């Protein structure tokens, strides 16, 4: 069925059928549009006082006829969905401009987002004949360069652009710039989209709205820098991506007083982002802060890219890293909880929306399952987790009977918790310079001189702004903490974000009802500090300052632990001595 779409309201049946007859026309391969067809479009356009647009295939057939209003038209969903491969869609837009005006921002955005072969506007003169031909096409991605080029308008009948040659040359250029091997690369390429919500200081975004996207982006880039807080978040998001094996090709930041209810960022900015994603050949957008289910859906219906947010990314990393059955169950539960409100029965967007990077789920759940099955699975998981929780509780109470105090190592992810466990107990727990290296809690026994013994537990790292119900899903991993007699809060002293991380960890401890548990703050990685920074941090011996990599430096911590524990009512002895400071005799399991 060859239908005329768009602004048909008020058109007479005879006018509609005249437009429908355009579908019978053919255009020669080397022409953008034939002179007769252009003439016809101008005449009808002027008669109706509306733009008329057609999408023409490489074969020269008319694939769509669209009616607009006096100043623009809305293209049909020519499959925003990725139509096979190739850089271009194999369709060009030819439409009329009633006042012979230049190509609009919308024309250029359509060109980029729909990856049209090119976009052409035929200006209409006062006699209803073709005036100028305005043409733009895409350019291969180049740092800081516009994604498209506008050719100088020429009188329609003097224009000598050979369409077939132009598009062939362009495709070759694109192939040279962006090797096709990229399509089969291992890792994903992502563009980060960060909204800085809060008071607007200085420049307002709205002033740059009317510029074409790339110019607007450059303009913005000059006007303000993301705040300190945003920079920290962006850094963290990059680290998360690195951990997940995702390459970050670009970061877009928008400052706004309130999140946009539909798209988180403004629609114009989102178009910007999509153009850039296209330019960089990115397949994934990662939003921070997290998207509401509604936002996720609106964005996914706007683009065919994968739409993720920070929490989905974190869950994906958890899924990649979970080893034990417990951890797998918990990650899967957390994923389902996050995804359930985003699931819609029979929704094709779904796998892009909720599938994470590789559609990874640690368990047997196919992430494409519908709502009902997801709910069933969720209940089953909850039951299973409850069962294993009881088993663990049994093991813990057996331990309790033996009266061993429990010390749990907590802290921000990558602070060095596992490294500390290793150096205190001479173990060999996985340590990695990546986020969330530890998902499965490890416990080790640590023996002090004079028969004193304790259980040392490593835990999953904390991170700011993990949604509360997800934190809950990990509660089982953190149960160790409920029984802890003492917490060692490990801080990466060398991280610029140190203080905010301490605050984030303290907030989570409070959420977990652990604010009252005795706690030692341990500044780690001080080998990375300058001597004067280190001595400020030591504060005349008031702070525990260590380098978990150097076993000797943890001795004062051991002393402090022993003191805290056996003074906290376990068994106070007066003839107490510090453990030996001889490194070779450092107590181990
Ligand atoms: N320079 C230096 N690096 C350290 C120190 N302690 C740990 N690291 C490094 O920091 C990185 C993270 O260490 P982990 O022990 O895995 O950190 P974690 O807190 O267990 O991290 P997650 O389990 O991912 O939350 C590793 O590359 C360690 O080698 C230290 O005292 N000094
Ligand atoms: Mg660890």
Task: Describe the protein's architecture and organization.
By secondary structure, the chain is of the alpha/beta class. Helix content is 37%, strand content 18%. The chain has 18 helices and 18 strands. Strands 1, 2, 3, 4, 5, 6, 7 and 8 form an eight-stranded mixed sheet that branches. The radius of gyration is 31 Å and the shape is elongated. The relative contact order is 0.06. Mean pLDDT is 83; it is low at 80-85, 180-185, 203-222, 345-355, 362-366 and 572-589. Residues 411, 413-419, 431-433, 435-438, 461, 524-525, 527-528, 547-549 line the site of guanosine-5'-triphosphate (GTP).
Observed structural traits:
589 residues, alpha/beta, 8-stranded mixed β-sheet, 6-stranded mixed β-sheet, 18 strands, 18% strand, binds guanosine-5'-triphosphate, binds magnesium ion
Radius of gyration: 31 Å
The number of helical segments is: 18
Largest sheet: 8 strands, mixed
- End-to-end separation in angstroms reads 77 Å
Shape: elongated
Q: Which ions and ligands are bound to the chains?
A: guanosine-5'-triphosphate, magnesium ion
Helical proportion, percent range: 25-40%
Q: What low-confidence regions span 5 or more consecutive residues with pLDDT below 50? A: 80-85, 180-185, 203-222, 345-355, 362-366, 572-589
